[in-house]
Amino acid sequence: QLQLVESGGGLVQPGGSLRLSCAASGATADYFTIGWFRQAPGKEREGVSSIRRNGGDSTNYADSVKGRFTISRDNAKNTVYLQMNNLKPEDTAVYYCAAGGSVIFSRWHNPALYTYWGQGTQVTVSS
Q: Which of 12, 57, 78, 118 could form a disulfide with 4 if both were Cys (CB 3.0 to 4.6 A apart)?
């Protein structure tokens, strides 16, 4: 069974950067589409980014993070990263990584398509 553990969250000033990691164990992460989601207090969970499975380098981004966030894989480390630059206060949320074996890529932002979830890591952007 695939297990996911996020790390790298924290407190950062507006304009700063963070790199989130999603370390997988129990299975090969590259067999899954990996998505990053976030949930702010009182809001629904929203898709941030995703990367296709099986060696694909196709990626998706929410409009709100395009040009600022970059998703990538390191298959040797069985880890997926989310590099977040030029962070804004509205990026404040709990960030989750998730894995799905049969995600329709055009619907990557739908949390229901992902089977495995990490516990989340808090990102706070504030001065």
A: 118
Alpha carbon distance 106, 78 (integer Å)? 24
Note down pLDDT in tens along the chain; length 127 residues.
Answer: 899 999 999 999 999 999 999 999 998 888 899 999 999 999 999 999 999 887 667 899 999 999 999 999 999 999 999 999 999 999 999 999 999 988 888 899 999 999 999 999 999 999 9
φ, ψ (nearest 5 deg) of residue 40 = -95, 160
- CA dist 75 and 72 (Å) reads 10
- What 3 state SS string does the chain have? CCEEEEECCEEECCCCCEEEEEEEECCCHHHCEEEEEEECCCCCCEEEEEECCCCCCCEEECCCCCCCEEEEEECCCCEEEEEECCCCHHHCEEEEEEEECCCCHHHCCCHHHCCEECCCEEEEECC
